[in-house]
Amino acid sequence: MERVSIVGAGIVGICTAVALQQRGVAVRIIDERDPGTGASFGNAGLVSIDSCIPIAMPGMLRNVPKWLFDTQGPLSVRPGYLPYASPWLLKWIRSGASEKHVSLLCRALRRLHKDALVHYRNLLGARGFNEVIRLSGQLHVWDTPRKSAGDLLADRLRAEQGVVARDLSVEEITELMPGMARTVRRAQLYENNGYVATPYQLVQRLFQQFIDGGGEFLQQRVNGISPHSDGAGFRIITSCSDLRSSRVVICAGAWSKRLLKGLGIDIPLETERGYHVSFDSSALDLPMPVMHKEHAFGVTPMGESIRVAGFVEIAGLDAEPDMSREAALVAHAKRLFPALDTSRKDRFWLGFRPSTPDSLPILGGLDNMPGLFLGFGHGHTGITGAPVSAEILANLITGTANTIDVAPYAINRF
Ligand SMILES: Cc1cc2nc3c(=O)[nH]c(=O)nc-3n(C[C@H](O)[C@H](O)[C@H](O)COP(=O)(O)OP(=O)(O)OC[C@H]3O[C@@H](n4cnc5c(N)ncnc54)[C@H](O)[C@@H]3O)c2cc1C
């Protein structure tokens, strides 16, 4: 059978490739980079099966001035990029304006995330799963003692979706995390959530399975995709090949918008840039990942390192990294864990979250371009959303019915 061509060897492309192989479909992946070195490389590694709250929520409009002028805040927009980002930002704010709409998004996020661990086990096999996934639980923390209106709304939306998060007392927090600063006044424990040993190891393991299963990998840049002039399938023009394929899947993360432009398809996809600083694992002893919700960063124990990841920066794909973020992340981590040995810092990293305005990915085909499938836009939760997205895409590509309603992820919602 002719190979399905997937553009992008991040977590979404790789999971989709393995899911297709498991259905007996031959697959070719094309990526200009080493597999797993896009956004899938440096994220916080959380498999947050209970995460179902979109980023844009009611009441966010009042925060816009702060984002524009506080360049070190959890969310910032580079002033020079504002004219380019404005249409997306407006859609983003609109997406979170009504509680009714947000509740629908929660349901769709819940469906995509809640079975992530089951689907990772299906993709990786029991041995691979045990090697790369850690089932530790996750702790979310706040410095403010009282829940805000936004926190209460998020609790209610989570409860609607059957998510159970346990509120901890200050004594319980100290018992669970003795090394955490006493400035933390509130915490929620998500016992069912986990994280990956390292996100790169996860992708590389799946990639090896893909190759062992007869998969073809071309390390080439895709410069353009167009319908073939004879009307059958697509031409994929890469840095050194002119390929033909009747089924093409775009899993190019934050770069997908550029690729689709050539096909005349305009999508509201922006990159929410994020950073990490990693430390040698001896810098801190941590039993599970901790997310500081007010400062929007997370600290994950990743085997050989402690990774501190966070920030949302709207500045596009081409702007240079903001080097001041490194010191800001180190300072956040040191404030939360005073015993952290900051002399053991070993890497600073910038990555590109592929984000839609409503926090849902775009999954599925296009009515007017049979054979073209889209699988990107997972924003803050691509490691979590990838395995179920792969299941959805593999079913759509092979003409198999999906058991979950895929309409919320269709491109025509925009
Ligand atoms: C700081 C940070 C923390 C995060 N933390 C978490 C977390 O804890 N949990 C979670 O679930 N998610 C997290 N995420 C989000 C997650 O990392 C992303 O949603 C996910 O990695 C996206 O995967 P992807 O496969 O769509 O994209 P990518 O991993 O970016 O892969 C896209 C691939 O497409 C390739 N490509 C693009 N254009 C072309 C072209 N023209 N030709 C050839 N190849 C091309 C790229 O080289 C790349 O390899 C975080 C992200 C960041 C930045």
Mean pLDDT: 95
Helix percentage range: 25-40%
Basic shape = globular
Specify Rg, calculated over alpha carbons.
Answer: 21 Å
CATH architecture label of the domain at 1-49 and 197-268 and 356-414: 3-Layer(bba) Sandwich
Query: Describe the biggest sheet?
Result: 9 strands, mixed
Structural class: alpha/beta
What report would you give on this structure?
The protein has a domain at 1-49 and 197-268 and 356-414: FAD/NAD(P)-binding domain (3-Layer(bba) Sandwich). The two termini are 34 Å apart. The chain is globular and about 70 Å long. The protein contains twelve helices and 21 strands. The mean pLDDT is 95. It is 33% helix and 25% strand. Helix 1 packs parallel to helix 9 (199-212), helix 1 runs parallel beside helix 12 (382-398) and helix 6 crosses helix 9. It has helices at residues 11-22, 39-42, 64-69, 82-95, 99-113, 116-132, 149-160, 170-176, 199-212, 256-261, 324-336, 382-398, and strands spanning 4-7, 27-30, 46-47, 75-77, 133-134, 138-142, 166-168, 186-190, 194-196, 216-218, 222-227, 234-238, 242-245, 248-250, 270-280, 290-292, 297-302, 305-314, 345-355, 362-365, 372-376. The strands form four sheets. Strands 4, 6, 7, 8, 15, 16, 17, 18 and 19 form a nine-stranded mixed β-sheet that branches. The protein has a six-stranded mixed β-sheet with strand order 10-2-1-14-21-20, with helices on one face. It has 414 residues and is an alpha/beta fold. The chain binds flavin-adenine dinucleotide. Flavin-adenine dinucleotide binds next to helix 1, helix 2, strand 15, strand 19 and helix 12.
